[in-house]
């Protein structure tokens, strides 16, 4: 019973769609709360192995935070606003299962930031990405100043953040902001193909890969390698390793649990 999002499950894939097409799927507070609830549901549902996040319609993924809500925001309200947003993006980034952003149009401000918290980004040819906050007198507030340079490098991140300009899908692919660009009609199919390829792999190994990359990138190489070794050791306690190795030797497909 959500007002602003659509949630669907076709195991192994879970779908979450921001559904405010009249305002280009801008994120108001209610939508952020609903997304949090839906992502928590996906995290706790063992039948869901990969989540696809997209926006309703053919024009926009998410055109940012709902600018109209900024008008009456007090400093304390803005602080709570920031904490809620950060909580949602951290939840997505640390869900324990991959989240694929199907970027079907505008991904601006908070929309670009939510896409960057996802594991993989696929864009349709009409997609436009950007961090236009400086034009509103703001700075990116959902991690844009941190996740964008990590994805595309400092110089390119500065160019986007300081000019506020939108870039098209081709440029976004060139600089590594999106993994792939496809025609809009094949966007979902492409995301589902990636999701199915991931869902065939051992779920615990996928979870540890996500943790190793995400936590590793935030620390030193030595700390990251130590974490990788720990998780490598941990995964050896799982039935899935026995199954994966036996299946290879017996020349059959593994059945991971
Ligand atoms: N918020 C509210 N309404 C929006 C919206 C948005 N972000 N984007 C579009 N809309 C609404 C428009 O007002 C319009 O509504 P009506 O006039 O029909 O009632 C409808 O969607 C259609 O939009 P347009 O008529 O403008 O459509 P166009 O094709 O002409 O232009 C556009 C599309 C995407 C270029 C344009 O709509 C646009 O520039 N939108 C704003 C994009 C933007 O600046 N996004 C960044 C928002 S700032 C924070 C954390 C995070 C953030 C803030 C604080 N804290 C930690 C406190 C995040 C900030 C942002 O995301």
Question: What are the salient characteristics of this protein?
Answer:
six-stranded mixed beta sheet, 10 helices, binds 4-(N,N-dimethylamino)cinnamoyl-COA, 257 residues, alpha/beta
Commentary on this structure:
The model has no long low-confidence stretch (mean pLDDT 96). The radius of gyration is 19 Å and the shape is globular. The longest helix has 19 residues. The protein is built from 10 helices and 10 strands. Strands 1-2-3-5-7-10 form a 6-stranded mixed β-sheet, sandwiched between helices. It has a 4-stranded mixed β-sheet with strand order 4-6-8-9. The protein has 257 residues and is α/β, with parallel strands linked by helices. The site of 4-(N,N-dimethylamino)cinnamoyl-COA has 23 residues, from helix 2 and strand 6.
Percent of residues in helices comes to: 40-55%
Order of helices and strands: EEHEEHEEHEEHHEHEHHHH
Q: How far apart lie the N and C ends?
A: 31 Å
- The tally of beta strands, per DSSP, is 10
Question: Ligands in the structure?
Answer: 4-(N,N-dimethylamino)cinnamoyl-COA
The helix count comes to 10
How many strands, which pairing sense, and closed or not: the largest β-sheet? 6 strands, mixed
């Amino acid at each position: 019973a959500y007002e602003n999002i659509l949630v669907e499950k076709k195991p192994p894939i879970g779908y979450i769609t921001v559904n405010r097409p009249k305002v280009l799927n801008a994120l108001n507070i209610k939508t952020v709360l609903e997304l949090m609830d839906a992502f928590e549901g996906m995290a706790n549902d063992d039948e869901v192995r990969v989540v696809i996040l997209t926006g309703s319609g053919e024009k926009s993924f998410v055109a940012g935070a709902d600018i109209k809500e900024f008008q009456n925001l007090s400093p304390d309200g803005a602080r709570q606003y920031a904490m809620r947003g950060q909580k949602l993006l951290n939840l997505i980034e640390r869900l324990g299962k991959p989240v694929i952003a199907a970027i079907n149009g505008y991904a601006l401000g908070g929309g670009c930031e939510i896409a960057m918290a996802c594991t993989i980004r696929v864009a349709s040819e009409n997609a436009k990405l950007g961090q236009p906050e400086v034009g509103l007198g703001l700075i990116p507030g959902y991690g844009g100043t941190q996740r964008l340079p990590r994805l595309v490098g400092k110089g390119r991140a500065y160019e986007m953040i300081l000019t506020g300009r939108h870039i098209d899908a081709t440029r976004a692919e060139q600089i590594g902001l999106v993994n792939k660009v496809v025609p809009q009609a094949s966007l979902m199919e492409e995301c589902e193909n990636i999701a199915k390829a991931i869902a065939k792999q051992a779920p615990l190994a996928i979870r540890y890969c996500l943790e190793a990359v995400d936590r590793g990138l935030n620390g030193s190489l030595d700390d990251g390698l130590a974490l990788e070794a720990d998780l490598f050791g941990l995964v050896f306690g799982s039935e899935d390793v026995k199954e994966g190795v036996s299946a290879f030797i017996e020349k059959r497909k593994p059945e991971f649990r």
